[in-house]
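Researcher: Quick one. two chains, 722 residues in total.
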Amino acid sequence: MSNNIRHSGKALALLLGVSLLLTGCIGTAQQDEKPSIVVTTNILGNVVQNLVGDQAQVHTLMPPNVDPHSFEISAQQAALLHDSDLVVSNGLNLEEGQQHQLDAVDEAENNHFVASDHFEVLEVAGSNGAADPHFWTDPAKMIQVVDALHQQLKDLPGISAEQLASDTQGYRAELTELEQQMTASFAQIPEQSRALVTNHHVFGYLAERFGFKTIGAVIPSGTTLASPSAADLASLAEAIRSSKVPAIFVESAQPDKLARALADEAQVEVQIVELYSESLTPPHQGADSYLQMMQVNTERITHALRN
Amino acid sequence: MKAQSYSLTAVLLSAVLLAGCAASPSATNDDSAVEPADHGAVEGAQEMPEAPLHLVTVDASGTSGMLDLLTDEETELSELKNIQNLQTEGRYLFADTGAGVDIVDSGMWSWNHTDHFHYYRGTPQTVGHLDGEGPAQIIGGPLSTAGSTGVYFPKTGRGILLKNSELAKGNVSEQFTTQASPHQGLLTPLGEGAITSEAKSETAPAQVQYLDAEGHPVDGANAPCANPSDATQTAAGLAIACEEGILVANEEQPGHPEFELVKYPQGTTADERVDQLEHRKARPVVAGLAGERGAWVINTRDLSMNRIMEDQNLLKVTAVGDKDGNVVAVDASGRVLVYSTEAGKTTGVSKPVLQETVKNPQALASTNLVVDAQRAYVNAPAQKRVFEIDFADSARIARTLSPQIDPTWMTQVGN
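Model:
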């Protein structure tokens, strides 16, 4: 993979970012001549880091493996937000627990880049017009956000426009390559198998971009799997039968038990595949960068649905 | 419990040293580094894909443990001796000994984010002991990591509002205390403050009064309510069982609750009034026994009250609050009954699986019926079993569980 170096750079940046949250270090950050950028989600944090390299201090608020919907920030992190040169957030209510602090950033008229201002927003399937914030599952949308970010970043004090343009170009090329990889990979899946039966609510943009149907399913709770009734499995079994897919992409505490229950009680043979959804992992744990997360998910979807 | 996050912090600290932040004296104060807010990511706890449901059982000798309903694994908990009543708000266990309350943190909880949930699994720990005289009335709040839990001792009139954020850290710490003349009453959290009961006096009728976060009564924030016997938090307000009916308190504006009374129908006798309010945690549909003839189903959202199964002598009842309006009950012959308020009829009756238990007053006294979204659980102390009931499938006994620690007392945590 072309981004090995980037990985280690990112890991260090993450360490620095979080360590700066220690009260004693905020002062140091302010003395630093580099501009300070605070990013809410770790996915956007990774993207911003790729654009600015070491030209800025990138502070990612959300640690790895955290659901952005439920994450809330500490008083120290709120102070960091307040003192930064630029705040980057996802928008569309993804950062529910931080909205209060983000509103304060806007009230103070601080520099605030909201990713969702820069692409065409989709509605959550089956909702009453609720906006879907999970744009990153479509790399084309991420490219639009990167282009808009470029414009915002170049005006920050201490940023070399030349270096930024070159780094942005480089990362943009990787995103374009990702998009091509995904298109080529999904092309291996027969048309009729392009369905994501899932209890994740994050793959709407991916589905729209690459021609998948998404079929929501109620996953029976683990406690029912020891002795399930037909009713417990009805919704999921019906979704699998009607879409005729060989694999489903659900988050379950006990995927093996669920697969067995489906086979025994509903006579449905299906593979259960896990995907990364809303957060990067810690370094070297499978999805420690946006590009890797997307590549792994693509491979898993294609592998599961192509036969 | 905190080992994992501390080791991470240690890595971060060394990164700080390398980065040249060592001059800062407060850089060693690792607690402040990634301190979580009220909820969301919590130090030492792992976010789970679904509710970490466990059955807690305590045997007659006080040995206590919990059974993981997903994996069947059992974990030992600290001893809870001389239990007269075992309660939980979904995470903490409150073992009432009749001379104070022992508190244990199961480490399992769900966090209600209004339109969706987050699930956490931490490490169980002993929280501590709260002194008191006589039985305690304990009412939890909607969230186990924020807000408070109310404990009231009718014998002495003393009330203690415990801080949930401290319980989560393993400390028994009060937000404030109250002192009333001894009466059947309660102290229950509501928003930042609490509601306390006041007995009838020469100058005022029996009522409930809202107290602010410091414990000061807020003018005009009260409602008539005699001898409140129980209260519970629902998504549509706090429900309080008063002699007059079910009083529902809501905080449209924080600090200024409004009260609405759902009255008993005319002709309801004293022994038909609700003693205990039971339901699936947070759901707006609540059930209570109507003496020896059926049960009441109260909806705190539309403020309705209906009597069901009037021809049945029920001993236990609770409401699921699902789309079928399922209500689960145990009758005097030891059968489990399921009634659907949507269908308006009984949809399932089990064999008399609790026959031995209902005939034994001592066993019946510690029998508890609980529900989650998919299953109901009832312990049969006389038979050393817990029955798992699929209420959506004609009261089918899905599993008969025999925890290693006999279920003299039983409750469910993780929800």
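Chain A has eleven helices and eight strands.
Researcher: Thanks, that's what I needed.
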